[in-house]
Structure formats: C-alpha cells, structure tokens
Amino acid sequence: MAIINVKKYKVGKRLGGGVYEKTQTQKFLLSQARGLKKKKRVSRPSDYGKQLIEKQKVRFMYGVKERQFSNYVKKATEKATKVAPAVKLFQLLESRLDNVVYRLGLAHTRGLSRQMVSHGHFLVNGKRTTVPSYTIGQDDVIEIREGSKTRHIFDDLDKKLKGQKLPTWLSWDNTKMQGTIKGAPKDADAFLDFQTVIEFYSR
Fold first, then answer.
1. 38: in domain
2. Three-state secondary structure along 106-171?
3. CATH number at residue 69
4. Is residue 15 part of a domain?
5. Based on the structure, what is the number of domains in the chain?
6. Which of 62, 113, 158, 178 meets the CB 3.0–4.6 Å disulfide criterion with 102?
7. 62 pLDDT exceeds 60?
8. What pLDDT is recorded for position 15?
9. Higher pLDDT, 77 or 15
10. Which residue, among 194, 197, 192, has the nearest Cα to 51 in the 3D structure?
11. Residue 10: predicted pLDDT
C-alpha cells in the first residue's frame, strides 16, 4: 500500500493534486508549492506537452488504461453523435459503473469503487454486475447486493450518506438504499480539460 501511495504522490506532483483523492489535501498542495519554489527554473511545456498532460490527468483520475481510453475518445468523436466530442467523452467516463458508485458516495475513492464493483457488491436494475466499465444509462437503478449489505465496507452507510451533496444527475434513496440516474452527466470538474484531450488525439 505504501508503494502505491508513493506512486500516486509522484503522479500528483507531475499532473496536479486533483488527479487522486489522496492528493486533494491541503498538506499535499503546500508541499507541491514548496517544491515549485525550490526550482530555479521551470521550463514551459510545448503545446504537445500540455495536451499530453491533460490527457494523462483525465486518464489517471478515472483509472482507465490507454487502449480503453483511446476507445472512449474514438466513440466520443464519431460523426453520428450530436453532442460535442469533449462533452461526450466526459459523459462516457462519468457513466462508468465504478465512477457512479464513487459519485454516489458508496466508496471514498474510485480505486475502491472499482474493487467493490469487481467483487460483485452491486446490482444494476436488479442484476449483479462485476464490470467496472459497465455503462450506466438514464433511469438505471444501482443498489447494494443483499448478501453484501453486512460487509464492513458498508457499516453505518446511512449515516455516511445522510446530507451528502450529489451531482444533479444522480439521486439516492436512503430508505431503499438505491441510487438512480436522473439524466446525462454534467458539470465536469474544472481541474480537467476534455477539449484539450480531444485535440491531443486529433493531431
């Protein structure tokens, strides 16, 4: 675990603290600022370098491998789509089951939500789903599998989720312990630049 944290810390220093939940802390931001002050000269990246950084920020944040990520970009840039490619890419990534589980607050990191989905803890429209990349659509219902509700990872879940602020396109029923997709994902994280990612793959 320590090795993983060190790796994430290094990636966060290179791409920005917003990439991982563990690097979105005041302590990390202060250490990053001190590191920049120590550098006598900071070279400016080329246009290609800037695009590469933005691409890596998005890929690392959502935990997607390069081949799978390029497939998302390809789908987002298909001529048949009526949505702008940058918006479509954002929607495709946000609609992943592991991300929706994270957005609902059922896991405190995307890495953990990916693991929880893989272990079969969730049902989508009543069916057990173990594929983190499974695409969730409007009106789909996500709930914790009955046999998983007693697992320690869900201890005091009702208290943890009480009063939690969710994205506008998601809703959670604390009585039924169910989440529902109300519409298409919107309001992308300001830390990410999806348009620059599209430009990177359009070179």
1. no
2. CCCCHHHHHHHHHCCCEEECCEECCCCCCECCCCCEEEECHHHCCCHHHCCHHHHHCCCCCCCCEE
3. 3.10.290.10
4. no
5. 1
6. 113
7. yes
8. 61
9. 77
10. 197
11. 59
